[in-house]
Amino acid sequence: MEIIHRKNEVRTIIKEAKTRGKIIGFVPTMGYLHHGHISLIRKAIADGCFTIVSIFVNPLQFGPDEDFQRYPRDLVRDLSMLKKEFVDVVFVPSTDEMYTKSHLTEVRVPVISEKLEGKFRPGHFTGVCTVVAKLFNLTSPDKAYFGWKDAQQLIIIKKMVVDLDLHIEIVSVPTVRDSDGLAASSRNKYLSEQERKKALVLSRALQKIKEMVELENITDSEVLIATGKKIINSEDVELQYLEAVELENLEPVSVIKNNTGILGAIKVGKVRLIDNIIWE
Amino acid sequence: MEIIHRKNEVRTIIKEAKTRGKIIGFVPTMGYLHHGHISLIRKAIADGCFTIVSIFVNPLQFGPDEDFQRYPRDLVRDLSMLKKEFVDVVFVPSTDEMYTKSHLTEVRVPVISEKLEGKFRPGHFTGVCTVVAKLFNLTSPDKAYFGWKDAQQLIIIKKMVVDLDLHIEIVSVPTVRDSDGLAASSRNKYLSEQERKKALVLSRALQKIKEMVELENITDSEVLIATGKKIINSEDVELQYLEAVELENLEPVSVIKNNTGILGAIKVGKVRLIDNIIWE
Predict the structure, then answer these.
(1) What are A201-219's pLDDT values in tens digits?
(2) This prediction's pTM
(3) Which domains does chain A have, with CATH numbers?
(4) Is the CB of residue A43 less than 8 Å from the CB of residue A147?
(5) Cβ contact B134–A103 (<8 Å)
(6) From A10, which residue of chain B is nearest by alpha-carbon distance?
(7) How crowded is the C-beta side of A91, counted as CA atoms within 13 Å?
(8) Which of A129, A165, A248 to mutate to test the interface with B (most CBs of B within 10 A)?
């Protein structure tokens, strides 16, 4: 496993792998890896890719009052996890390597970036799209792997790829959950034991909705959302949104069917958590 | 010379040329070709490139009150000119081929896109950057050719390429002028004979400034700009701006030196024209 820090090293290694006929699989991460990331990496390796993982806590996607400074970091642990997975290359750039002091350019996907998470994290997805576009240009992958946990991010990245004529297949991988049902996230580390118990209400509400749809055939969004909100509001957490939407454009839907999902966010103490159920 | 209309044809031809070890040279145009375009193409061919020229009048870079509909088009003439230059590929996509109905993504270079032209054409450079990013992703060129005539565009594209880690060399080519001094532009077609005479005041003013700098060693921007404005205002045209700026960031400069330029725009009747002098 090669660990590299420079853009020109990425280009050289990727070019060389392409010359050898390799399919490039790219997994962008902010590090502090968990089972969710590992499932993306295993998918890339199962697909036979020459697999490059990036670890970069991207300042551009954090708001001024958000957790950029305290976002969990543990490179030693990350690298040891990646080595066990037989990753080919880990790209760990510094902020100065990724952004010049005079950086200006933004890649934006308006409309769908302003919904749901966008209302609570203005500018977040522009930061995500900008860094992902840069990383795509550096790694020129054939396939890039994203988790359904960050459903809105996945949908926005897919849209960006189509709109900008990037020749990359975006591979989506199901959300990985801990045994208690909580969706795997680096931010779960912020939760105290008591907060974690409270946080479970989001996955519990989504699980209840899933059962109503799939076992009881209840597909009326209003009924499902009302049930979900009732469950969430029974716990000492702040419900930020719970919405049934079309997956392609994140427009509200009145009936759950294929290509819709229910996306939610709560705040537990100071910690924001997101989760969803998707009908692909 | 191959004439193609589809994105997948571009990818196939470029991939095949790269396999044969070719360096890809890309010249994006909006058609209605003139000597300025031809000088870009000749530079690409002189550089030994497998040369692809795009002809696409990009709706995204025209404001609602601008000349998208009436922008001059003459594909038959363009193709015959390109054939004589031994261009390898001409890519002529339709608007529907370039943009899906649900297109959303924008590539923006804030700050420098809002200066000079940006004040008169809000959103223009976002339209330019978005289509150029798409065309770059489709043609994956090693080199792309832009004229100094559109100095702000050239500077913004260079910035976008650096900021987004696009692995493309932007080659800049000097402005080509007609024998009367008017900078070559497809929009010159809009000018009546009388308007054309009036329009010459811009290149005349810039030429006077050039002489003051290079022959008389006058480098005080205030003096140079005042002289230029006086010349322009002596004619029946509307001066929109005439500014001395740093080439890299388009910030005003008080003294002309290397890496500065004086950029101007006038309106003659209903026709906007731009021109500049550059000290590289």
Answers:
(1) 999 999 999 999 999 999 9
(2) 0.97
(3) 2-173 (3.40.50.620), 191-273 (3.30.1300.10)
(4) no
(5) no
(6) B165
(7) 26
(8) A165
Are the CB atoms for B271 and B187 separated by under 8 Å?
A: yes
Which residues of chain B make contact with A106, given a CB cutoff of 8 A?
107-110
Secondary structure element (H or E) that encloses residue B83, with its range: helix B75-84
The number of CA neighbours under 13 Å toward the Cβ of B201 is: 22
Tell me the DSSP string of A49-116.
-EEEEEE---GGGS-TTSSTTTS---HHHHHHHHHHTT-SEEE---HHHHS-TT---EEE-TTTTTST
B127: which chain A residues are within 8 Å (Cβ-Cβ)?
A: none
- C-alpha to C-alpha distance for B251 and B220, rounded to whole angstroms: 15
Cα nearest neighbour of A132 on chain B:
B164
Q: What span, in angstroms and rounded, lies between the C-alpha atoms of B163 and A105?
A: 6
- Total residues belonging to chain A: 280
Host H or E run for residue B211:
helix B193-214
Query: Which bin fits B128, alpha (ψ -120 to 50), beta or left (φ > 0)?
Result: alpha
What residues of chain A, 161 to 180, have a C-beta less than 8 Å from chain B? 162-167
Reported ipTM: the value is: 0.97
* Interface contact A239, partner B, CB < 8 A: no
Q: What is the Cα–Cα distance from B129 to A107, expressed in whole angstroms?
A: 10
Give the residue carrying structure tokens 């969990």: A72
**Which segments of chain A are extended strands (E)?**
2-4, 24-29, 50-55, 89-91, 106-108, 143-147, 169-173, 238-246, 260-268, 271-279
| Closest CA relative to residue B221, chosen from B231, B233, B232, B209 | B209
Separation in Å, CA of A107 to nearest CA in chain B:
5
Per the listing, tokens 């209605």 go with B32
Measured from the Cβ of residue A264, the count of other Cβ atoms closer than 10 Å reads: 24
Q: Among A51, A55, A53, which residue's Cα sits nearest to residue A23?
A: A51
pLDDT by residue (tens digit) across A121-136?
999 999 999 999 999 9
Q: How many angstroms separate the CA atoms of B53 and B92, rounded?
A: 9
Tell the residue number behind the tokens 């890339």, with chain if given.
A44
